[in-house]
Amino acid sequence: MTILVMGTIKLGAGEGAKAAKMLADHAAVVRTEDGCEEYSFAFDAADPDLVRVAERWASPEALGAHGQADHQKAFGRALRDHSPSAMSIDAWDGQHWRKLI
Question: What is the CATH number of domain 3-93?
Answer without folding.
Answer: 3.30.70.100
